[in-house]
Amino acid sequence: MKEVVYLKSLSHPGIPVIYDVEEDQKYFYMIEEYVQGESLKSMLERHKKFSLEEIVAYGIQLCEILSYLHGQKPYPILHSDITPANIIIKNNKLKLIDFGNSVQITGKEQKKDVYGTSGYMAPESKQEISYNVRADIYGACAVLQEMYQKMALEKMTLKFTRKREKLRRIIEKGLWQDVDKRYGDIWEMLKKLKGLQVVDTGKLTSEKERKHTGMTIGCAGITPMAGVTTMVFHIAQVLEKQAKSTALIELGEKRDFGKWKIWQQEQGRYIENIRYGFRCEKVDYYPKADNNVLLYVMNVGYEVIVMDLGCLEGKIVNDFKACNKKIILGNYSVWNYEQSIRKIEMVTEDVNTSEWKYATLCSDKKICTMLENKLGIQIQDLLSPKNRNIYEGLLRDMTDSNHKKFLSLRKLISSV
Fold this sequence. Notes:
By secondary structure, the protein is α/β, with parallel strands linked by helices. It contains 15 helices and 18 strands. It has a nine-stranded mixed beta sheet, with helices on both faces. Strands 3-5-6 form a three-stranded antiparallel beta sheet. A two-stranded antiparallel sheet has the order 1-2.
């Protein structure tokens, strides 16, 4: 029961939302999101022939879901029952369902009761030996093996033959009876599969696909826990009052949108599931968005897209620079003063920052003054009572759609 309740905190596009768990004298009941689509089992039973590209793409999606589960802190979660019946596909998107047999590996227990489906369970699950994340790797490869056996073979070119042979070796490595001969973790297998994927050149087919003709607002933090998501939600509220069609995108590995959704449902607010996300009132939310979700959102036709970019690091810097309007938040203090200088200088290097906004929700005033003098910027304290008008003015400026520049989709996705 403890492990299943822990699953309620999960938030991933490839995992159904688990709303609640109930118990009576005989059974446990898991109440989860209804997932539309066709099961992989049904596809196989109707003798669906999978192309090599489909197998690789579905394999990558499955590995990405498992990498999310295995990367949970403090302990990894194993699905433990990866079968074609527990994989639902719709519009080429894969969802892994049925977490009734999932387990959490604490590292303290050598063996626990494990259940699954014959033919897909790892051999060690039936033996008195340690049970770890490699069991899920076995299940994933067993599923890919079944798809591989029903591969469409109409393109027997040399390039196809070589890729097919590489895919076979990837699958077979995950099916070793000896646990130590399999992949060390799911990320290793994911890297191998991505090596077979056709590289996207970034060429798009139409003007509509190339440009989002509305406004984009980027919110990012110089320091962790700077209040980026809070700011994004405030901006959404203003846009909702202005009756603008708005999308909020959560980029990176955060899970704040998923947690907010669960909390809103507990408060009795109506949440409507939409493609890749959910809708609350008149705002569409896209949690943990990847490149595919970003491409989709850019082509929907929203008037405003607000991006929760989290901390400014890595590729997030380029995403931030590509937005029409930008706001940087930070909790500035003595111990992050030097780091804050380096990050702000990194993100503002060789860029016109005249329209950028710098703000803080909780900082040392002396450190803010030092940063202002050092970098030539103005940091607005949004929690100060005397700055109430500044806060309202900031939101008003960030949501002003009279902006002549449009965001180039090609520029944005170049760093994703």
